[in-house]
Amino acid sequence: MLRLYFFIGLMCLVKSDTHETCPSFTRLSFHSAVVGTGLNVKLMLYTRRNRTCAQAVNSTFLGNLNMTKKTTFIIHGFRPTGSPPVWMEDLVQGLLDVEDMNVIVVDWNRGATTIIYSHASSKTRKVAVVLKAFIDQMLVQGASLDDIYMIGVSLGAHIAGFVGKMYNGQLGRITGLDPAGPLFNGRPPEDRLDPGDAQFVDVIHSDIDALGYKEPLGNIDFYPNGGLDQPGCPKTILGGLQYFKCDHQRSVYLYLSSLRENCSITAYPCDSYRDYRNGKCINCGIPQKESCPLLGYYADNWKEYLKQKDPPMTKAFFDTAEKEPYCMYHYFVDIITWNKNIRRGSITIKLRDKAGNITESKINHEPAVFQKYHQVSLLARFNQDLDKVATISLVFSTGSIIGPRYKLRVLRMKLRSLAHPERPQLCRYDLVLMENTETVFQPILCPKLLM
One GO molecular function term (predicted)? Predict the structure, then answer.
């Protein structure tokens, strides 16, 4: 009997793709990448009824696809080693957790697996043609273009764009996760993802100086940490393969965080990352009744608002923590000084609650300018949200290693939460900050007049 079970299990492993009991993502070797692979597109359907065992579908067999529900396609990008994407299963399960939908994994690993990037990129339009044939059959069976959502990663983002163009922009939504830059940067709209490719296009740019696309490609384009170096990613080639792909992949992990209940990343529409860091865009540029856009799955909450803009496009910036779930919590630190002379420098602020939890923000992206009796409002970003702050500490630094140590005479400091504006604002008066020396104090509630 044991031998029989072993034989059945072995047969499941060696069955061809079309007859697999539970189809799985194509797994290829680095050897395949060296010799190259011909294109073969494999579609795998997951639903809440079959979350762990996919059903192979194609344009002649739609399987258990429910035409009345949303259908989300996940399209991966370049695969230089032939391995399956490490994030794929989490993305499938995360989507099924938030909504009862059809999820279709578009496996074009045979085609994307090659060490020659241009060979993979040249196959993107052919993948789009295969998806068009499948969607055509969905429409015949009663599906609506409004309910079709495509999530494309890297080259996959442009594939989604090509599909959208074939339907004259009538697809419900496209999300581009760090759309590929090489061979696409500077290309005209017909040769890449474009805001007109769906009713709503949102894009996360996490590696604009290397593998990603720099310019806006959607109705809303999110630039985490300015779209450049992502916190927690290796800064040098000593980080190995992660040095090359960590920033690029961060877009996927940020999207994944939006599918979890413990983190909703708020972004701030702004002309530039510098303006965002300088606290110039924290009200989203809209009436307070509108909440700021959320990154990821719920970004389309801003769809109707953006439709009113001409053109219906915006860029949004935010910062993240180094590790999952990546959320940062924004506060304003308002400082009025009474030094006779102008002081320039940075502020480090540390918050501590009664339980001993500590969170810190270094506001040092550029020197703040403190003038007598002028209020300076600094945007502080913390990776923990402490409900009740027991103590605050401040450190002032001019960044000078030699020369005199300066003092910053603070007439009033005020701390106010952007995420929770209903919370009491905290103040402290008459402080003298010695340069590079931590000053710890207990805050008091600000008079309501100041709020």
Answer: phospholipase activity
Q: Is 416 annotated as a binding-site member?
A: no
One domain for residues 162 and 253: yes
- Quote the pLDDT of residue 261: 81
Q: What is the DSSP letter of 425?
A: P
User: Which residue out of 178, 202, 221, 319 is catalytically annotated?
Assistant: 178
Mean pLDDT (the chain, rounded): 91
CB atoms within 10 A of CB 76: 26
Crossing angle, helix 88-98 and helix 241-257, to 10 degrees?
Answer: 10
pLDDT at 16: 37
Considering the candidates 32, 121, 147, 154, report the single residue annotated as catalytic: 154
Q: How confident is the model at residue 286 (pLDDT cuts 50, 70, 90)?
A: low
Whether 184 and 213 have beta carbons less than 8 Å apart is answered as yes
Using a pLDDT cut of 90, give the percent of the chain over it.
82
User: What tokens does 274 get?
Assistant: 């510098």
- Is 136 flagged in the annotation as binding? no
Rounded Cα–Cα distance for residues 265 and 260 (Å): 11
Classify residue 229 by its DSSP letter.
S
Number of domains composing the chain: 2
pLDDT at 10: 30
Residue 178: active-site member: yes
* 146 among known catalytic residues: no
Q: Kindly report which listed range (100-104, 344-348, 372-376, 381-385) carries the lowest average pLDDT score.
A: 381-385
* Domain of residue 304, residue span: 10-318
Catalytic residue among 76, 158, 205, 248: 248
Q: Let me know the angle formed at the C-alpha of 79 by 78 and 80, rounded to the nearest 5 degrees.
A: 110
Same domain, 314 and 376: no
- Whether 92 is covered by a domain: the verdict is yes
Closest by alpha carbon to 230, among 377, 328, 90, 348? 328
User: Is 194 assigned a ligand-binding role in the annotation?
Assistant: yes
pLDDT at residue 449, rounded to an integer? 63
pLDDT at position 240 is 83
Q: Is the pLDDT of residue 278 over 60?
A: yes
Same domain flag for 194 and 290 = yes
Name 382's bridge partners.
329
| CATH number reported for the structural domain that contains residue 333 in this entry | 2.60.60.20
